[in-house]
Amino acid sequence: AVIDAVPMLPTGMAAIKYMEETTFTNAAVETAESTATTAADLIGEATLALTARTMPVEWLPVFIPVTIQQMEDVEGIEAYVNYRPTEMLRMRLDGQILTGDGATPNLKGTLNIGGSLQTQAKGTDPTPDAVYKLFTKLRVTGKVRPSVIFFHPNDWQDIRLLRTADGIYIWGSPMEAGPERIWGVPAVQTTYCSENTAISGDYRNYSALFTRRGITLAVSDSHAFYFTRGMLAIRADMRVAMVHFRTSAFGTVTGI
Questions:
Q1: What is d(CA 21, CA 19) in angstroms, rounded to the nearest whole number?
Q2: Residue 34 to residue 36: CA distance in whole angstroms
Q3: Which stretch of DSSP H or E encloses residue 219?
Q4: pTM to 2 decimals?
Q5: Cα separation of 109 and 76, whole Å?
Q6: What is the pLDDT along the chain (256 residues), one digit of tens a residue?
Q7: Measuring CA to CA, which residue among 203, 237, 214, 210 is closest to residue 15?
Q8: Cα gap 227→231, rounded to integer Å
Q9: Cα distances (Å, whole numbers) of residue 199 to 40, 88, 120, 194, 249
Q10: How many CB atoms lie within 10 A of CB 154?
Q11: Please, which residues bridge with residue 17 across strands?
């Protein structure tokens, strides 16, 4: 799941006020001891340009209908109906983290953070080469180490099936699961990543999913005609906000 690659932090606020790092200049340098009495600085002055941002905490709900008879007569149905809406929320979050447009009530996904989001076109390169070039941009320009890369399953399939000229599978024998990583970076397959576009970045250090309220389940027969028909509405919901702390820490490979 995409959300497994993103740190989750608690919040008690209705909106997340955070500082986006838009400039990073490292002035750390070895400096000799001095006994000078002048006001000149001995230590290099670093530059961090921080821009105040606000991201609203959004509400993500879903509900499913069941009958009272189902709940009473079907073995294991309670565990099943509790699990499925929870999984629906996780699936929706996966998509929002990557592609949400940021227009309330949507979260702002990586593809729409703007700023200095890195982009690497595949062009005539093999896909692994284009991925490595993006990683280089993230390291050189973004000053980060990519923690994960997301692929659409169809795109990862093309990588998994790559073979040498004599027919040897590069990503391992078909008898084995094969490494879910590329250039040492974990690869996650998700249908919420658009086909032909891979998304990567340092999610571990420069993103967070702020949770105002975790997944909560509630049951009621007060919806519409449910009371008179012996039905129940099982609702799962949560309140979250997605934040990217530095746009240059993320990027895409296009044209895969």
A1: 6
A2: 6
A3: strand 207-220
A4: 0.89
A5: 36
A6: 899 999 999 999 999 999 998 877 888 888 887 766 665 667 888 888 889 999 999 999 999 999 999 999 999 998 999 899 999 999 999 999 999 999 999 999 999 999 899 999 999 999 999 999 999 999 999 999 999 999 999 999 999 999 999 999 999 999 988 889 999 999 999 999 999 999 999 999 999 999 999 999 999 999 999 999 999 999 999 999 999 999 999 999 999 9
A7: 210
A8: 6
A9: 46, 22, 10, 9, 11
A10: 12
A11: 54
3-state secondary structure of 138: helix
Residue 156 to residues 138, 189, 202: CA-CA distances in angstroms?
21, 7, 20
Type of residue numbered 72: E
Report which of 216, 140, 217, 190 is spatially closest to residue 3, judged by C-alpha positions. 190
Q: How far apart, in whole angstroms, are the C-alpha atoms of residue 113 and residue 240?
A: 17
Both structure tokens of 243: 């934040």
| Cβ atoms < 10 Å from Cβ of 126 | 12
Q: What would the two tokens of residue 145 be?
A: 């180490």
